[in-house]
Amino acid sequence: MSLLDQLLEDLSLEGFELRQVVAGLSEAGWREPTPAEGWDVAAQIAHLAWTDEAALAATEWVAGDTTGWDELVTDGLKNPEGYVDEAALALATMPATDLLEHWDGVRGELAGALANVPEGKKLPWFGPPMSPASMATARFMETWAHGLDVREALGLAYEPSDRIKHVCHLGTRTRDFSYGVHGLNPPSEPFRVSLTAPSGEIWEWGPEDAAQSVRGPAYDFARLVTQRIHRDDTSLEATGDEAEKWLSIAQAFAGPAGDGRPKK
Question: What is the CATH number of the domain that holds 239?
Fold first, then answer.
């Protein structure tokens, strides 16, 4: 199985599990507030549906149909800071059954479209262009992170799987981005990251002899880089001042610097 095939399979499973969480909700359940200020459960699902639809438009752009993507960019330029949130909140006003059906449709289409992007082609995006594998990783990260928000809003327990390795990998790859969105210069030397997976497996990135390092539970790291937990509420251990600094600003998602979660 190729990396892209594995990513698409894991993305499908993550989406399916979240769908199972919301499928039987009452209207009141869809309107439960989530940890994201101003967003209820419907807004979380609407955001995923809208972003999946944007990614689908990016695949169509590669295939020669530029209309959908060009319209997104034109609309986005009118309100660069708030466009994505506005689009999600507008979509969230749909009846819940229609919203769920819409999300089902676009995420199914997206999986097929990403699998069929010609080798070597990159997709346009709101940041740097992305390979199909990078796009699938980003869509997995968002689906997983927003799924945490939904479960928290509904008071549901969550048992992490080793699929979170995709989020951890993205977290390590976005180290320099995290510094950049905070107006800081990233360190020139690589860090060592050693994480314990839910299964007990050890995942490692970076050179063994790095002066700066991070180790601890992969679930904590994945939540930290998606800003679903405060640094002080994790069991992560940092060696070196720069490694500790990174953990305080880590951000795996695009956009301006997030506020993160308050300390419990």
Answer: 3.30.1050
Residues 38 and 126 in one domain: yes
Strand-pairing partners, residue 213, are 192, 239
3-state secondary structure of 209: coil
pLDDT tens digits, one per residue of 196-240: 999 999 999 999 999 999 999 999 999 999 999 999 999 999 999
Domain of residue 197: give its range. 163-248
The CB-side HSE value for 244 (13 A sphere, CA atoms) comes to: 6
pTM: 0.95
Among residues 191, 149, 173, 144, the alpha carbon closest in space to that of 44 is found at: 149
Distance of CA 244 to the CA centre of its chain: 22
Q: Are 41 and 31 in contact (CB under 8 A)?
A: yes
Q: What angle do CA 53, 57, 63 make, to 5 degrees?
A: 145
| Spatial contact of 103 and 48, defined as CB atoms under 8 Å apart | yes
Tokens of 123: 């997709």
Which DSSP helix (H) or strand (E) runs through 170?
A: helix 165-173
Angle subtended at Cα 62 by Cα 59 and Cα 67, rounded to the nearest 5 degrees: 80
> In angstroms, rounded to a whole number, what is the distance separating the alpha carbons of residues 158 and 165?
16
Query: What DSSP line would sit under 55-94, residue for residue?
Result: HHHHHHHHTT--HHHHHHHHHHHHSTTTHHHHHHHHHTTS
Contact 119, 126 (CB under 8 A): no
Same domain, 27 and 133: yes
Residue pair 213/236 in contact by the 8 Å Cβ criterion: no
pLDDT tens-place string over residues 76-98: 888 877 888 898 899 999 999 99
